[in-house]
């Protein structure tokens, strides 16, 4: 499925080396919310790790 706006916001932060906590703080959400978004991102991109998510998102031109 399509990524939601929030999932895209989280996705765009993945290439940086920010921790989940830092991503949460930056988006003004809880760490749990970030984890939920990550699960959605991984599921929709068909990957199981942050590194693979970034690589796949680049292939799909979701990231620079």
List the helices and strands and how they pair.
Elements: H1 5-13, H2 20-27, H3 31-45, H4 50-59
Helix pairs in contact: 1-3, 2-3, 3-4
| Average pLDDT rating | 97
Largest sheet: none
Strand content: under 5%
Report the count of strand segments: 0
The secondary-structure class comes to mainly alpha
**Global morphology:** globular
Residue share in helix? 55-70%
Radius of gyration: 11 Å
Number of helices, counting only DSSP H or I runs of 4 residues or more: 4
User: What distance separates the N and C termini?
Assistant: 20 Å
Order of helices and strands: HHHH
* Regions with little confidence, pLDDT below 50 for 5+ residues: none
Question: What labels describe this entry?
Answer:
about 60 residues, about 0% strand
Give an overview of the whole structure.
The protein is an all-alpha fold and 64 residues long. 66% of the residues lie in helices and 0% in strands. The chain has four helices and no strands. It has helices at 5-13, 20-27, 31-45, 50-59. Helix 2 crosses helix 3 and helix 3 crosses helix 4 (50-59). The longest helix has 15 residues, at 31-45. The radius of gyration is 11 Å and the shape is globular. The model has no long low-confidence stretch (mean pLDDT 97).
């Amino acid at each position: 499925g399509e990524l939601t706006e929030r999932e895209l916001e989280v996705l765009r932060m993945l290439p940086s080396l920010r921790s989940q906590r830092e991503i949460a703080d930056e988006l003004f959400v809880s760490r749990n919310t970030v984890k939920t978004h990550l699960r959605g991102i991984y599921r929709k991109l068909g990957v199981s790790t942050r590194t693979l998510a970034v690589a796949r998102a680049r292939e799909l031109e979701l990231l620079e």
